[in-house]
Design a protein that fits this description.
This protein has 2 domains: 115 residues, 2-Layer Sandwich (Phosphorylase Kinase, domain 1); 235 residues, Aminoglycoside phosphotransferase (APH), C-terminal lobe (Aminoglycoside 3'-phosphotransferase, Chain: A, domain 2, Alpha-Beta Complex), CATH 3.90.1200. Helix content is 39%, strand content 11%. It has 10 helices and 9 strands. Helix 4 runs antiparallel to helix 5 and helix 5 packs antiparallel against helix 8. The chain starts with 29 loop residues before the first helix and ends with a helix.
Amino acid sequence: MPQAMWQTMGRRLRPEKRTHPDSRNNVNPQRALRSFAGLSDPVATLITTGLIHATFDVRDAGGDRFILQRMSPVFSPRVIDNIQNVTQHLRARGVTTFELAISDGKPYADLGEDGLWRLMTCLPGISFDIPKNADQLNAAGNLVATFHRALLDYDAPLHSIGFPFHDTQQHIKDLQLALRECEGHPCYPAVKLLSEGLLAEADLLPSLSSAPDRVIHGDLKLNNLLFEPAGDETSPSPVALIDLDTLARMPLAYDWGDALRSWCNRLPEDAPEAELDITFAEAAVDGLMSTFDATPDAAELNSLTFGLEVVSLELSIRFATDALRETHWAWDPKRFERAGEHNMSRARGQFDLYRQAKASHGERARHMGSG
């Protein structure tokens, strides 16, 4: 879903240029830059690694650095209200986070046909697509736990992000509809074959609804965490979470599942295979468990053990749908003939990760204390 916003701030382990579904238009940031006061001769450079938004690294004459984004129209403009309110709450709790700039009294600039734009302070740090070691993931889990604890008393409403999110049944319906409507698509035979397995497994997924709702980040892939290098970068320390478009109130299992499916897969997200590292998963869970002052109740603990399966299968279904629709995720034209092929590779990789997660469920549940 949404991308890491500060990916050019440091060395990435696997840089990858992608084409946005809407990047065929000429995105010019100059009008947006003029909408935010206080910038002095800003220079904007397009960041090409994002999956959803058009993102620019902005430097002004005074040496200040910002991130400018034209929001994808798939998101509701109200997500900016979510971000503004939650980041203010986090700062009040002493949690490091970015700050939205103001344009005409609002934390965004609405430029009509030119889109909705936001400008954010740029946090220093580096991001990773693939983890370095278990210690890094344990520290990452602790950072995420700090985020969750800081929001335990956040009681303001959170607006819908604008499209179905962690709604497994709706994602299944979307895939089924795409299969009916896109039979002429070149990727249709491959999607249809994969979908037989996806839909059969989806019938077996447990419901997470018995667990309490909490404020979740919603997109905890590894490159949405910023790290501060330590020495030779063998043990980078986490600094902050970024990319808060998907803030929501949902069971915590969705955040844990999304974290584990990204952090504990030794292969890139868009590879057609996965390699689940149980040692990485256990280290991450040990950090994440610091969310709780005591062991969570049985219903929540049980849901947490299934988060990885639910999120990886759900994401595979979404990638398979977009392999036919080709409207949501960006793609790499240097490696694939079309967006559908890139999304098929992603769908296969997440389904492989799901199968490995399912096979290792008992071992992971025992480590969490629920097996």
